[in-house]
Specification:
Layout (H helix, E strand, L loop, with lengths): L3 H27 L7 H28 L22 E2 L2 E5 H19 L9 H24 L3 H5 L7 H14 L15 H20 L7 H29 L4 H15 L8 H26 L7 H19 L6 H5 L7 H32 L6 H6 L1 H6 L8
Antiparallel strand pairs: 1-2
Helix pairs in contact: 1-2, 1-3, 1-7, 2-3, 2-4, 3-6, 4-6, 4-13, 6-11, 6-13, 7-8, 7-9, 8-9, 8-10, 9-10, 9-11, 10-11, 11-13
């Protein structure tokens, strides 16, 4: 039965997540690159949101949430018009199905936008346009069905409250798997950290819709998810600042922003399952492990993930998903008690770990093959001269700044 309060909350939550994708991710990313690429960086996020918005209602929603074929994929290749219908989804029985559909659409759109941070300043815009529908179809759609739409991982007992596996792990692993090569200059400083501060603020604000909205009702569960989202972000921010202070003697604003995002991403899969104490531990652990991934693992493995999508989102997704298996309190969420789980249940830790490994292997393999095929067919990287001069003027004939 439709509930007006739940419907109002979910309308607001949907708008909040859209704010995360555009302009949140776009502003956060654009400030971290050189000024000659600011528009191109923003454009990658904007076009991702637009394309996924169409793909979602053409076939994405139906293949994820309608029916099931052997736990692998849904049964509906097209989505029947959801406008004007009072029907509800089995996943959200108190809001219109169309509202549930567009709320879930925002998760798909932001996932693709996040991946762009790994390849900014050197990917061909046309190749990115080709990558979006292929990656969405081959990776996001099946993984979301496995975890959220009645697929085999959900049946196995894998829990992901708001996207630690579906959003952050897939985008982080995809960033690691993209075959594009290192930037010609990896030592460039952020050209406008103020943009990134604004972007982070929009992400933090919008994340309440991301996590608390995933309760799908305006009640205690949403409230709990909102509280732990905020405490984890704060712990992550302060944790990264502390590490900066210990390692270099000076806390940095960029470190604080990175730590906040790590805290937000890490609590995402656990937001509806853990208490405040656990959220602080998860956020703080995320700041430490993400810091190590960015400052130690990345240079040793030699991959060039420009904006550390793997180092922050991928690693945080793993931390939070495993954290469900360690810190979940079944009494906080009916979904856990319905599954017969009790506090400290070892099977939950095992199922969460299997979920992470399965999705990571699948995402890496398919993304690697997909990127390799695009590279071989039409090329994936811009010309050397275009990369050195900047992509705004060479790919779009525009410039973010007109200085005279």
């Amino acid at each position: 039965m439709l509930n007006s309060g739940d419907t109002a909350w979910m309308l607001v939550s949907t708008a909040l997540v859209i704010l995360m994708a555009i302009p949140g991710v776009a502003m956060f990313y654009s400030g971290l690159k050189k000024r000659e690429n600011v528009l191109n960086t923003i454009f990658l996020s904007f076009v991702s949101f637009g394309m996924v918005s169409l793909l979602w209602f053409l076939f994405g929603y139906g293949l994820i949430f309608e029916g099931d074929i052997s736990g692998i994929i849904g049964t509906h290749s097209t989505t029947i018009s959801l406008l004007g219908l009072e029907s509800t989804s089995k996943y959200a029985p108190t809001i219109p199905e169309g509202l549930f559909a567009i709320f879930q659409m925002t998760f798909a759109a932001i996932t693709v936008a996040l991946i762009s941070g790994a390849v900014v300043e050197r990917i061909r815009f046309s190749s990115w346009i080709l990558f979006i529908p292929l990656w969405f179809t081959l990776i996001y759609v099946p993984v979301a069905h496995w975890v959220w739409g009645g697929g085999f991982l959900q049946a196995y007992g894998v829990y992901d409250f708001a996207g630690g596996i579906v959003v952050h792990l897939t985008s982080g692993i995809a960033a690691l798997a993209l075959v594009i090569g290192p930037r010609r200059d990896q030592k460039l400083m952020p050209h406008h950290l103020g943009y990134s501060v604004i972007g982070t603020g929009l992400l933090w604000f919008g994340w309440f819709g991301f996590n608390a909205g995933s309760a799908l009702t305006a009640g205690k569960l949403a409230t709990d998810a909102m509280i732990v989202t905020n405490t984890s972000a704060a712990a992550g921010m302060l944790g990264w600042m502390l590490i900066d202070r210990i390692k270099t003697g000076k806390p940095t604003l960029l470190g604080a922003l990175s730590g906040a995002v790590a805290g937000l991403a890490s609590i995402t899969p656990a937001a509806g399952f853990v208490d405040i104490g656990a959220s602080i531990l998860i956020g703080f652990m995320a700041s430490i492990l993400c810091y190590l991934a960015v400052s130690w693992l990345k240079p040793r493995l030699g991959y060039d993930d420009a904006l550390d999508v793997f180092g922050i989102h991928g690693v945080s997704g793993v931390i939070g998903t495993i954290g469900v298996g360690v810190f979940a309190i079944p009494a906080l969420n009916p979904a856990l008690t319905a599954g017969g789980l009790i506090t400290g249940n070892t099977s939950l830790f095992i199922s969460q770990s299997i979920g992470v490994v399965t999705v990571a292997i699948y995402t890496f393999t398919v993304t690697y093959v997909l990127a390799s095929l695009i590279k071989k067919w039409r090329g994936i990287r811009v010309d050397r001269e275009d990369e050195i001069q900047g992509l705004d003027i060479n790919l779009h004939e525009e410039t973010g700044y007109r200085l005279t």
